[in-house]
Structure prediction request, 344 residues.
Amino acid sequence: MKAAVKVRPEPGGTELLEVDTPIPGPNDALIRMDATSICGTDMHIYNWDLWARQHIKTPRIYGHEFSGTIVEAGKNVDYLQEGDSVSGECHVYCGHCHQCKMGNAHICENMTAFGVDTDGIFCEYQALPAQNLWVNDPKIPVEYLSLQDPLGNAVNTVFSAGDITGKNVVVLGCGPIGLLSITVAKAAGAAQVIAVGHSNKYRMDLARKVGADIVFGKEDDVIKEVKSLTDGIGADAVFEITGNPNAVIEGIHMARAGGTLALLGIFNEPVTLNLTDDIVFKCMDIKGIYGRKIWDTWITTNGLLKSKKLNLDPIITHKYKFNDILKGMETMASGNSGKIVLTF
Ligand SMILES: [Zn+2]
Ligand SMILES: [Zn+2]
Prediction:
């Protein structure tokens, strides 16, 4: 089978190779990929940044966002059938640690991730643990199904603020997950979705197309603007999806007292906050968001997909065949893209 393999520990370093088709273990299912999308994590691996150097052993097949069709279920897997359309939760949980027992499999103590710690799905077939597979509704288009992992990040982030119907929310960051969060917040009935980008005009334009009510950039006094859009009160919820320390500090100042700040962005350095004035006295509700709740987030995500209220088409800016995956990586690296979906 064909696979995109990180063969060399260097920027790029990826080749489309012919490799052996995996053999599923008793608790796995072998999946033929139908569609995959390129994630920020894949770009870390492609660009070979510090995180990738610390986490990835070459050779490694990467990629973790997909929809595919089961071609063979392992002998202990009686609840999945050949022909089922599935997507996968890339965080492989153990099922027996303290967190798993508490129903917190998304923060499993023994978590591994396919496409990072083990081979991923930038390939024609992959054997994955059946417990990590989600059976898809075949009525939903495969390119949307392949987005359930990042869409789930957005759903988990937005709904961490509770019921946002009629509320004012701010999305910090107009990258793919920021864009997905905008459409999720709109679908959830937010009164105003205020998006904040930096300088990437292409993505800020996408934020408008996706449905943000207003989009600000680095030249704007965003704290003042958000205050004036909310009668001086501040936003009910701020979703931080940049990992930029300044954004998080500004985000706190955009939020109303008692509001929610949900953090999905990854910070490369410690961030200094004025805890007394900005968090304690302001009664801020701060949430750390990691991955997707298994399977609560997937259930909500599917409900939203079925509602047809999500505006995903503007977010999928490029569609390629899997053979052109390196072109997809380069397009994503340019910053002038939303999600890139590859079909097989
Ligand atoms: Zn992803
Ligand atoms: Zn566990």
